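fyi for ur records
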Amino acid sequence: MRDPYSLLGVKRSADADEIKAAWRAKAKTVHPDANQDDPSAASRFAEIGQAYEVLKDPDRRKRYDRAAEMHQTIMQQRQAAREAAERAKAAKANAEKVMEELARANAQRTQSQAENPQGATGETPEDMIERIFGAAAAEQVKAQNQARTSEDASEGVKAEQSGERAPLPVMAVDLIASLVRRFRGTAPLPEKAPDLSVDAAVTVADLLKQASVTVKLADEREVRFTLERGMTDGHVVRLKGQGLKVAGMKQGDLLVALKVARDPHFHIEGFDLHTTLPISLEDAVLGTEATVETLEGSRSLSVPAWSGSDQTIRMSGLGLYDGAGGRGDLVVELRIMLWEKPNEKVTDLMRHMRHGLYV
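which gave:
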């Protein structure tokens, strides 16, 4: 179901009266009787009704808000992981280029000093940075080195954005500046190389039983770790010292974003597991006792009378471990299924109900 707040056109801070008024207005607008020429009117009317069912119940509304907030957090974590991977890739490429240029400049300076001790010593590291990345980048690196030497700066460099090229990312500036200090011998090596980000495919069952996961990296290394409680789809695992390798630097961390593979029976929302239960028309009207397959075996479930399609029943404590000593729920979504072949009695009854001839 889509966002119920958007469907009803209300803010997330709306109170019960605002939600009820919005539902009535929307329902009146999209009611099938008022839109007989629109084949989608019935589905839109049902969708608005489902949205109201969620928001009018304080408990269901709180659960939805928590799930939506967690989904947003997961999306932010994924975006941060993607951005970190892009920064790490750019920093590595810049570092390799700078290492080559610095080595070449250092060799030329050594040869120049040998040939003419009183003359010029060749291109300096700062000149080389300016030649490769532009004046703005050179100023950033220079300011970074000065800040590191004097210990006056703690959060990177704020360089003046001038010149033809755009300033480098802070991570790239820090890495390149550290390489310059290394060749000049003016400061110790940085603590570690940039972090490396990868994705790991896991199953719903893996998360529940806290299985071991193996990640194969681009350098042919295989890193193994164990899933823990509190991990769910989109969770980012930090593995210390298992990331990017740069010569002469401490190895960076490995950031592993968990991506849950598609499951034919379950899907994840936060720490809740969702599954569907097909029921017949008579069971939906009269109620029934059904059996639901869970990841821990079959469980019995009572379906109340007059249970509509897309109505949900929560089975407490059968979801994923939340890392705080509890577990999410198994949310059973009901689906009304008709018989394989038409039933004349049911067809006749529906025809009477449509035309108002109740028996």
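Confidence is low (pLDDT under 50) at residues 151-171. thats all i got for now
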